[in-house]
Amino acid sequence: MTLPDVVAGALLVGVVAYALLGGADFGAGFYDLTAGGAQRGARLRTLIDHSIGPVWEANHVWLIYVLVMAWTAFPRAFTAVMTTLVVPLLLALLGIVLRGASFAFRKYSATVSQARLFGAVFAASSLIAPFFLGTVAGAIASGRVPAGGRGDLVASWVAPTPLIAGVLAVSTSVFLAGTFLTADAARAGWDALTERLRRRALVVGAVTGALVLGALYPISSDAPTLTEGLVGRAGPLVVLSMVAGFGALWLLLRRRFATARVAAVVAVAAVLGGWAVAQYPWLLVDQLTVAEAAGAPATLRALVLVAALAALVVAPPLVYLFRLTQTQEWSAREDHA
Amino acid sequence: MALSLGWHIVLACFGVAFPSMILVLHWRGVHRDDAVALTLAHRWATVSAVLFAIGAVSGTVLSFEMGLLWPGLMGPFGDVLGLPFALEGLAFFTEAIFLGIYLYGWGRLPPRVHLLMLVPMAVAGVVGTFCVVAVNAWMNAPAGFRVVDGEVTDVDPWAAMFNDLSVLQFAHMWVAAFMVVGFTVSGVYAVGMLRGRRDARHRLGFLVPFVFASVAAVLQPVVGHVLGAGLSDRQPAKLAAFELALTTESPAPLRLGGVLVDGQVRGALDIPVLGSLIARGSLTAPVRGLETFPVEDRPPVNLTHWAFQTMVGIGSALVLLVLLFWVARRRGHDLTQRRWFLRVAAVCGPLAVVALEAGWVATEVGRQPWVVYDVLRTADAAGDNPWLWSMLTGSVVVYTGLTVGAVVVLRSMARRWREGEEDLPSPYGPQRRSVDAGEEER
């Protein structure tokens, strides 16, 4: 494994972490949006506040990590992506900004009408961000970002694979959030809410599964390099993802919520890992390989050090934070936070 | 870019300096059993939650803009200047995690452990500031690479990060953060006192940030002076613009005010010799004039000059004010009893923000036409994006919306605190339904 590969691996870890954690936070917006009126949805919205409130900022930093790693380690590829996919990136950025700000505003707004306004912005923008980030991934994976950058501003992402990737990003985010929220509601002992969430997560999961199967044909003709990798080298990961996805649905059906969450995480992580393996050694598919795109070796060495430092400094408190939010004492005090 | 940076820089100040102030109050609350201090710490933490959230998103905007707007900088130099950004990301990560633990730890963690959660936040603020400012310092004093035949080679990211200016520029910015936050927060309580709220909470809420701001304000001119001392060698064109020096003079005067119109300086007040003394540390050394630089290498003179003088002017005024306050206090006069002082204290926060922005304009505009001094011109670094203007308009709208939202929410928080609600339950929470009904009727 060469130095650029190691750094690309560290980058992938960030992408997966953001897709899982940030994705689940975004997906929560869907349930917020469909929670019903101010009174009917009150309990669900409180649960969402509680589940993602302490962690979304930390989860969001994964995106910053990905961006910074990308431009430091692979500056040429970074500018190529940025100049070509400027439209979806800006729209995703808009979604991210509105989501974060209105979520924080809503939590502290004084009246129902204020909360309703901020809440609607929060929920809607939660779906915009993953869709457009998904199109960015799809555009890269289907070889639509030229190595020199400045590809077609519209055609580079308004195409089968990017659009499918956008829809999939939204539906997997929503499914992840569904399994997480159902588990949280069950732990808090809110049975009616748990049932409601469980039903929705099941429906979303089934829809996601159908989407994945339906997407195979258009992607195979639109992104040959990716498809070749997916059925070849990345095959085992694709199979793992399917098994875990069906497993998650089955566990939800059996009301094994905590385990369902793990299965859902594995399913999504395996898809992303499969994507990475499938397109390797390309960084920008058909355009620029990881080795070609890599920046100065001294910088890459420094970045490996930073990544190691991150694992050392950031991981323990992050685990501590997640553990705290999952403990009985923290979730039992819903009414005072 | 300038808009987002100028907006983000204020929020970043809160991220950097606010945890230390909360730490002081929280420590006082825990170790001296001071309920007032504890209440304040809790409220400030809640405020910082809102500010941190919008700071996080505006920071994201910046990382996108780096690539969207400056492909000519990020493409060739991304691996040179990226390392401090990566470390900054790490620092920000740490701060986000501990903020999460701290905010949700109220009443859930043992008090002493809870208090400790602020320490990593304050440390992360220091590291983060250093890293970000190091990048800016690198743009002023490029290091850690060589350009051979137009190609960037011999990249040494550590040398780029620890360039000649990093430490000094960091000190200048770090102290500035404490001035901005200290004066802003104490100003809020000054307004409260003006409106007749003179309880222990207002006294403490004024005094703690004011102490921070005082120390910072007195230190700042020293740091600034040391930072500026090498400017005549490093970026003589910037110095000439700061001083509005058209021709080389020896000794040079200190020029207060004044505008350059058609090659003539109008309306300036010259103090002889002082210019040489401050900029060069000598009674006779010349300050190089703008005429010695080719036209295409000159920064916009008036803007740079005025930004610089605004920063220095406000900084000096703030030093005088805090000295006045503490001298009077030693002599037994409490100036917070005087309405004129409270009024002045109330505007100190905005003034400190103006000084911060002016200082930033001075250093950035003064470096023009270079993005990376003597290496890369701004025009070459920018993208030729055809709809730059619509992007700008969009950003203005979004930032205005964010600002309005933040003000509305922070004000309503303050109102509810005054009405005695401590926990600020979400209005859609089931337990608040009756109260909401009452509010909707009003």
TrEMBL record, chain A:
**In the UniProt record, does the keyword Transmembrane helix occur?**
yes
> Which UniProt keywords are present, listed alphabetically?
Cell membrane, Membrane, Transmembrane, Transmembrane helix
Annotated transmembrane regions: 6-31, 52-74, 80-105, 117-141, 161-181, 201-219, 231-253, 260-282, 302-322
Q: What is its main location?
A: membrane
> What GO molecular function annotations does the UniProt record carry, in alphabetical order?
electron transfer activity; oxidoreductase activity, acting on diphenols and related substances as donors, oxygen as acceptor
Cellular compartments annotated: Cell membrane
GO biological-process terms attached to the record: aerobic electron transport chain
As for family, the record states: Belongs to the cytochrome ubiquinol oxidase subunit 2 family.
Q: What is this protein called?
A: Cytochrome d ubiquinol oxidase subunit II
UniProtKB/TrEMBL annotation, chain B:
An MF annotation (GO) of this entry: oxidoreductase activity, acting on diphenols and related substances as donors, oxygen as acceptor
Q: What membrane topology is annotated for this entry?
A: Multi-pass membrane protein
Q: Where are the transmembrane segments?
A: 6-27, 47-70, 82-103, 115-139, 171-192, 204-223, 306-328, 340-362, 387-410
* Compartment annotation: Cell membrane
Q: Sorted alphabetically, which keywords does the UniProt record give?
A: Cell membrane, Electron transport, Heme, Iron, Membrane, Metal-binding, Transmembrane, Transmembrane helix, Transport
State the source organism's domain of life: Bacteria
Primary location class = membrane
Record Pfam families? Cyt_bd_oxida_I
The yes or no answer to whether the keyword DNA-binding is present is no
| Gene Ontology biological-process entries | aerobic electron transport chain
- Could you tell me which residues belong to the region Disordered? 419-442
Q: Family, per the entry?
A: Belongs to the cytochrome ubiquinol oxidase subunit 1 family.
Q: This protein is called what?
A: Cytochrome ubiquinol oxidase subunit I
Does the entry feature the keyword Transferase, yes or no? no
